[in-house]
Amino acid sequence: MEKVKLETKNVSVQFENKKIIEDISLKLCENELVCILGTSGVGKTTLFNVIAGLLNPDEGEVELNGENITGKSGKISYMLQKDLLLPFKTIIDNVSLPLIIKGAKKKDAKEESKKYFHQFGLEGTENKYPSQLSGGMRQRAALLRTYMFSSDVALLDEPFSALDAITKHKMHTWYLNIMKEIKMSTLFITHDIDEAILISDRIYILSGSPGRIIKEIKVEMDKTDKNNEEISMSEEFIEYKKEILKYLIK
Ligand SMILES: Nc1ncnc2c1ncn2[C@@H]1O[C@H](COP(=O)(O)OP(=O)(O)O)[C@@H](O)[C@H]1O
Ligand SMILES: [Mg+2]
């Protein structure tokens, strides 16, 4: 049995007497990548805000390593949907920000975060500004900044949705590799079915109003030695896609 890192138990949220998400129970195990897949407006970001402790649910609980963390922020690395780098700060200053917020001295924070620049493919960008980097590089810098919050559980809210298809594919391969290296468990929001099938170990489909988990799908595809283009044209992939569409289009 895999070790459960993160769990939500019967989480419900309402805004102004309108239920947005209802009875959300999900699990994220160690080193797993799990996608929450749903159309826009279904309540995905709301769910993440609850898990990150930024929003108190009306019902339910959030547990990290078996400990109740409902309403407590700062326990999980969270990359917001519009997590932009500050344009007037250099990449190293942007990435060091979480450590500085936690109270580290600027010099120490920079030294610590510099260690990861190579691993995140950002070597040489330390003193550049975000506008000088490509879209993919900016997202890697934002991911490194998220990682510097130093939890081994990450919430990523549509991190690659603004990238072009080719860059997105490259980022998928890159992220799956780095996740293994840094031993990260990831809960990942997307509205992109292909992306969900390509990167996930499991997928939760969120649908309806209020948003509920209507289906859990385990993705068991042999992805070794195949590139994303090959995978996304395989029979197996198309079968997963058909099944997901059946649930999403109702
Ligand atoms: N603070 C808020 N107050 C009232 N309604 C909100 C608030 N935040 C989100 N909503 C509403 O909740 C629903 C779900 O939003 P959101 O969680 O952002 O969806 P998603 O991320 O799936 O696109 C939307 O209808 C949105 O308008
Ligand atoms: Mg959202």
Which key phrases capture this entry?
250 residues, globular, six-stranded mixed beta sheet, four-stranded antiparallel beta sheet, binds adenosine-5'-diphosphate
Please describe what this structure looks like.
The chain is an alpha/beta fold. The protein has eight helices and ten strands.
The CATH top-level class label of the largest domain: Alpha Beta
User: What is the succession of H and E elements?
Assistant: EEEHEEEHHHEHEHEEHH
Estimated structural class: alpha/beta
Question: What's the shape?
Answer: globular
Could you give a short account of the major beta sheet?
Answer: 6 strands, mixed
Catalogue the ligands.
adenosine-5'-diphosphate, magnesium ion
Unreliable parts: none
How many helices? The count is 8
Can you list the strand order of the major beta sheet?
6-7-8-3-9-10
Query: How much of the polypeptide forms β-strand, as a percent range?
Result: 25-35%
Report the C-alpha radius of gyration, rounded. 18 Å
Determine the mean pLDDT: 93
User: What oligomerization state is this entry in?
Assistant: single chain
Q: How much helix is in the residues?
A: 25-40%
Cα distance, first to last residue?
34 Å
CATH second-level architecture of the largest domain: 3-Layer(aba) Sandwich
Please specify the SSE layout and strand pairing.
Elements: E1 4-15, E2 18-29, E3 33-37, H1 44-51, E4 59-64, E5 67-68, E6 77-79, H2 91-101, H3 106-114, H4 135-147, E7 153-157, H5 165-182, E8 185-190, H6 193-199, E9 202-207, E10 212-218, H7 228-231, H8 235-248
Parallel strand pairs: 3-8, 3-9, 6-7, 7-8
Antiparallel strand pairs: 1-2, 1-4, 4-5, 9-10
Helix pairs in contact: 2-3, 2-4, 6-8
Bound molecules: adenosine-5'-diphosphate (ADP) and magnesium ion.
Magnesium ion binds at residues 44-45, 81, 157.
